[in-house]
Amino acid sequence: MSTPTRRFKRLITGGVVTTGVLVATLFTGTAGAVAAPDVQPGPEPTVHTQEAYAPEDDFTAKWTRADARQLQRLSDPTAGPRENSMPDALTMPEVPQDFPDMSNGEVWVWDTWPLTDEDGNQYSINGQEIIFSLVADRSLGFDDRHVFAKIGYFFRPAGIPAEERPENGGWTYGGLVFDEGVTGQIFEDQSYSHQTQWSGSARIMKGGEIKLFFTDVAFYRDAAGNDVKPYDPRIALSVGKAHANKNGVKLTGFDKVTDLLQADGTYYQTGEQNPFFNFRDPFTFEDPAHPGETYMVFEGNSAMERESAQCTEEDLGYREGDPNAETVEEVNASDATLNIGNIGLAKAKNDELTEWEFLPPILSANCVTDQTERPQFVFKDGKSYLFTISHRSTFAEGLDGPEGVYAFVGDGIRSDFQPLNSGSGLALGNPTNLNFAGGQPFAPDFNQHPGHFQAYSHYVMPGGLVQSFIDTIGTSDNFVRGGTLAPTVKIDLDGASSAVDYSYGGDGLGGWADIPANIDVNPGGKVQ
Fold this sequence. Notes:
Layout: E1 61-62, H1 65-68, H2 70-74, E2 107-116, E3 123-125, E4 128-137, E5 150-157, E6 172-176, E7 194-204, E8 210-221, E9 227-245, E10 248-253, E11 258-261, E12 280-286, E13 294-301, H3 313-316, H4 328-332, E14 340-348, E15 356-366, E16 373-380, E17 383-390, E18 404-410, E19 418-419, E20 426-429, E21 439-440, E22 443-444, E23 455-460, E24 465-470, E25 472-475, E26 478-481, E27 489-494, E28 497-500, E29 519-521
């Protein structure tokens, strides 16, 4: 999901073994001995300890400029036009242009999430898998979809191997989750020009109740499309149920919305501080170190005024005496200060998950990137892996990196997180050539790799599977737009390293729109 702004920018938890809890086995298999790739000259990454702190502590890990500059060090400066300059082990396999449409022409599809529990297990109900997606009518231009986004749902029979399904994944579009007008009721100012729904997560509770956490958004624009006042995104909750049988799935409830959180201006930037701020993408989970406590991660921005934001030595993160270091003065004199993304943390105050309190951010990316979208946790081998997604275009001035998944590892949900893979953070990028400009999804660069914009909005699933949607495949002389889910791929984790599993599927590409459940519940909510 991208905030429609001045430029085109664009938690699932794994289980831990606890008594009486069904757990998702994440990242079965390992990356093996992942060899450190050759790197180009440049600064050394910041030293991170991975040390854990209490969730309520006032410690925020930093994804530093020194870390992010490792991305360019991993890039091959000799890669020619339309070649991938990034390591194959960190690159999503190339997606072909002749992709099938999972909705059979009904809607555009992009950010997508499955039905999960507090441990990241993915559920089918009475033999039907269910996913939620941002959708928009195909009468709209693909790039106009953001301010008209709604949450829809799809279903398909569970337990069928990917190779036995229809090519498009075998999903049936069930329609919209909310009736018209339901999600707009929480806004005090009802003069909005557009009211939309953005990404979130869906949590199944005991008894089969579904808590849908999402981003509820109002835009206030004039007839020319100019903002009359800043847009208003809020983290919200709606509750319903899914009724499934061999014929399909119907949803009931989802007729009321509870306003959970609004950016506070203390930890998380507001529209008054920056009209282009980000505040969205809630995902709830239980922390293995604090059983019974529910937390939420979400995308935010550091709470500074846009025009006066400044970055510190700690945000830059260079080692003492590094000859390739930048100075604080030169970074703060550039436009890098416009890019101050963070990943927020909140804690539930009641069992109904209707009351929440902000905690300090767990990760800041000041002067690194403006967007840290759809954050999620995966827990493996006693470690907490924090995943997020970011665009090439949202990296700060002086930095560059592929569209894709970035990952960090620590000893708890609040840690001095270490970016994976030589300190770069890159876990799964689109094929990209950092020697050439990228262009835009609606106008890709002639010299760029055709896969530069192929997939986005990745979501990490049990077993290390990763799903995403297709944006644009091709270059300026031959490209197609997407609006459907990409093939599922797989990544393996090994400590502070990861690698794409090219043995999965066909040369690393699995089934189209393949989002398999690993647990089934019956209509009464009983796990089977």
